[in-house]
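Hi team,

Below is the intake form for Branched-chain amino acid ABC transporter permease from Infirmifilum lucidum. Please confirm the fields before the structure is written into the shared record.

FORM ID: S-0412
PROTEIN: Branched-chain amino acid ABC transporter permease
ORGANISM: Infirmifilum lucidum
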Amino acid sequence: MDPLMFILDLGVLYSIYAILAISVEIEYGELGIPNFAKSAMYAIGAFSVGALATRLGVWLTGVAWEGEFKSTSWIYATMVSERIASSPMLGVVVFVVPLIVAMPLAALLGLLASYPALRLREDYLGITLIAFSELVRVFVRNYEPLLGGTFGAGVPNFLAFLPVQLRSIALFLLSVAFLAGIWVAYYRLTTSPFGRVLRAIRDNEVAAQSLGRDIVKIRAKVLTLGSVLAAIAGVLYAFYVGSVNPDDFTVMKTFIVILMVVIGGKGNPLGPLVGAGIYIALDRTITFAKQLISLPFDINYFSYIIFGLLLILVVMVRPGGLVPERPPVTVRER
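The structure came back. Fields below:
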């Protein structure tokens, strides 16, 4: 593979995972709520692309859809890409509309998921949110008219109007721009009075409530915000991969993102960036290593063993993560 293409590919994937990690950091690192339905919110973004992008492109080009979605979506996705090659505005619409649909939909689901988070202890909360996440995935997997079921759905290339050698660069720049904007907004939140309220609730909920803070309202806001960020990552992922399959969004995705946050460091704005970078680097290294080693068990489980050992090591040696939490600039002694 061309080294430049490899770097661009890693950059896009890193940006997606870093956005996901930031969404978990806001909920878990700042507020202290472990959102085990994260994969569902991530999936909402991708599902919106899979369900809308090709259909919207076909409708805008005036072509009548023939046949079942599950058996023809890949064909029509290719046709829409060809039309985008001569119509840049069509590519913009195909990207923007699913994004606009995914964000409020994820916000609504995040608000619904916040209700058990307001009333249940952490152990019951975790079980409830995992069940909620699987419910979303299983429904989409079995309702074929929406996303093609186990066949998945093809996604048109919204950058097809660019020369082939520039498409990867454009997607890289777009993903990095989303990450930069989201991280800056997150950093400003952590150093704001609202960020201090979140940490106060995390550290001592009773004390925060005694000072007049509406715990229920704040938790609902944060889970809604985190869900919207996860949906943005899902939209980018769908266009990056070029297809959407419900089986790509299992609960394991949630645990992977939480792993990034724990390794990077909860409560530190740099934690999600560091954690996502370490995960991507190790994942690619393990992928190459799988081709060179022989093990007495399924090689596909090798990465789970490595990441599990890494998590145990970090928790034992550096419980605060590689980049531990520090007092925000606004309250640190100068």
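SUMMARY LINE: The chain has one domain: 3-250.

Thanks, M.
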